[in-house]
Amino acid sequence: MSRPEIQVKGLHKSFGDNEVLRGIDLEIGQGEVTCVIGPSGSGKSTLLRCVNLLEEPTRGQVFVGGTELTDPDVDIDAVRRRIGMVFQQFNLFPHLTVTENLTLPQRRVLRRDRARAARVAAENLARVGLSEKADAYPAALSGGQQQRVAIARSLSMGPEVMLFDEPTSALDPELVGDVLAVMRMLAQEGMTMMVVTHEMTFAREVADRVVFMDGGVIVEDGTPDRVIGDPAHERTRHFLSRLL
Ligand code: ADP
Ligand code: MG
Hints:
By secondary structure, the protein is of the alpha/beta class. It has helices spanning 44-51, 76-80, 98-110, 114-127, 143-155, 173-188, 200-206, 224-227, 234-243, and strands spanning 4-15, 18-29, 33-37, 59-64, 67-68, 83-86, 161-165, 192-196, 209-214, 217-222. The strands form two sheets. Strands 6-7-8-3-9-10 form a six-stranded mixed beta sheet, with helices on both faces. It has a four-stranded antiparallel beta sheet with strand order 2-1-4-5, with helices on one face. Helix 3 packs across helix 4 (114-127), helix 4 packs across helix 5 and helix 5 (143-155) packs parallel to helix 6. It is globular and about 50 Å long. Magnesium ion is lined by residues 44-45, 165.
């Protein structure tokens, strides 16, 4: 593997007595695309949220780009800027135009001036194929377009790593393809990505690696052909059979 961009060591996370992550070890190389699959409640979102410290791990370590996020002395805001996250719900500001949605966080968080923020916003809207929607409000866009704007907003912050938590699960089926196409482009450009998804075709075609989680542990971890095509564990087979 190339230099690990994301490293998770002995990660545990409990909510009260509910131990949701029970010892996760994972290394993701630079430019690697890892799809995380598994049943509802298996801890996929919690794992992603621990990787950018939206949740504080109960035990264990998380490193991104060689910096330990779980070090109490780390400047977490600085590290978090290197990690983009895209959720099932797009969370765009409804009262701001598409361009304003992209420029506001750059100006507030990165302190970019208006001209630079606007230039970066325009570049990233072009990347997701939505230049013509620059002045539209979110409500005027389809769900798929709103999700592409959310991706462009994340990219405008210049992340080294992108985390996606079921980015197409809230979309009408006919809108899923456009969002997956943008993610495929990012993968081809060499972005390091962790993608929680139920889109097995995407996982098979784009992922370098598939991680199957169940009950807060990684049950299987391997190439898509291995984990999806020829699962070694009954739990994985059972999960996959219910998706098809
Ligand atoms: P998945 O994304 O695989 O569906 P999650 O990581 O969302 O699973 O949730 C795993 C478990 O953790 C679930 O039992 C869920 O109820 C619990 N959980 C997640 N977030 C919280 C929270 N903030 N407080 C309490 N319990 C939580
Ligand atoms: Mg989830």
